[in-house]
Amino acid sequence: MLYLKYNMFKIISMIMFFFSMLFLALSLLFKFMSINMVIEWSIIKIMSMDMKIIMMVDFYSLFFSFIVMYISSSIMLFSEYYMEDNKMMNRFIILMLLFVISMIMLIYSSNMIFLLLGWDGLGLVSFLLVIFYQNKSSLSGGLLTILSNRLGDGFLILGLCMMYDIMSYNYIYMIYYEPSHMYFMFLILLACMTKSAQFPFSAWLPAAMAAPTPVSSLVHSSTLVTAGVYLLIRYSDCLKFMNFNMILLYTCLLTMLMSGLSAMYENDLKKIVALSTLSQLSLMMLAVSLGMYDMAFFHLITHATFKSLMFLCVGVLMHSYSGYQDMRFMSTKFIKSNFLSILMIYTFMSLGGMFFLSGFYSKDLIIELIFMNNYSILIMTMLYMGSMLTIMYSIRVTYMIYTNSLNFNSLSLSLGSRLLLSPLLMLFFLSIFSGGLVSWLLLDSPVYIILNFNMKIAILLLIILTVVISYSFTKLFLVINIKMSIFNSFMNKMWFINNFSSKYIINLSLNYSMYINKFIDKGWSETMGGLGFYIKLVNLSKFSNNYFYYTMPMYLLSFIFWLIIILFII
Fold first, then answer.
1. 431 and 340: one domain?
2. What would the DSSP string read from start to end of 255-292?
């Protein structure tokens, strides 16, 4: 029976890989033949509105499905190695399949009715995956994840209700309506910001790291957090008619700065990778806010390839250290695998935008296109600092892992097992070729970058300055921790967003309920209500009992009193 469970990972991985190749072939066919298909199924008619399930099949949906299925097949192979000691294999496999199916439903949805199935499915299954280990940390992270996502679901449902005014739930035809009728786009924008963890809804993303590492790899590469970016790309024609772009622009820049600064002060390796995902999501949303929808989709694809590989490498390192996640006590000097070292360096270099790696083709293209436009000095400064911080924490992580001598346990790990080597090789080849391939497929014409001499020098100075600052910061990190503990706490807690998302809200509600209980439930309502009335009746009955129960003088007095009344009446 146990052998069959392990074989299930291979069987499901092979099926996913087959579907990924099928999606890739169909996406190329649809691209070169310029085919777009809309498939409709009518569900129910309410008055004059026909509710339908509408599927949008085009190059974007098919190619994104290829990326999701390919990464999922690699992660299922890796899960056989990572989850080998877990006793709940069947539950893990079913939840992973439901997670992928929900994402595929969201990718092909073309109207809000069908979209809600995949959107809610991602939120529910992500909660079940985050609490998979069933401990206090997993429960707190899972509750924060599902409550934050339910807030976004509420925004989406409100937008769905407002779309009833235009008598259509299909976003393909919404460009033909008046912009004054598309005020629901603000609610959809809030829902996408919540799902992609933009400021101030960012606290749940690091908290979701309580899930198993294969789940985190799938969530942070191509499924849950990318759903908001993908939906905004689909709604791009509606978004450009509204005046919400500047709100989204400054929100993304704030998120980029917050995630970069928090990653510089974080020691948990897994949370650093999660914060790097938050930074790259901000860059995608920034491209959407500036109208560069193809560039956002381009970076969405390339980021998914190297981020999934990065999580698997971090998962191997954590698994070798028995689940320990503090990188101050990790080192690859005791891991006898040059291949793993190469993969980790490659993924962090790609995250920083190293030349001719997958991240370079999309990330640097977005930044250079922004530099070509005349934006304000505030926008350029925040973007410059956010890009610099990405390189800084990438160098910091690489330096600490590969030069660290504070190791408390020496170990030896070999990557000779096919369970571990095959998924890493699959994702490595996809990540190596994804930048060039997607740029040929997605960009119909070459993109010319025209920058003046000062901007070119500024980019070179950015690289040099980043290396110097990150090295100095790593050397002085322990001193900074001691001398600036309050500032360090501020950065570690993501500008106290974690507290505002959980602690302060809970304390506010609990204190309010305590005051209600004290002044209302146990105050005037209790005195004037049922309990107070009951106490007064009891006291009155005790008074009557003391004066009338077996008391002969009282009986005689009452008899005389009644005789007097009768005499006066007669």
1. yes
2. HHHHHHHHHHT--BHHHHHHHHHHHHHHHHHHHHHTT-
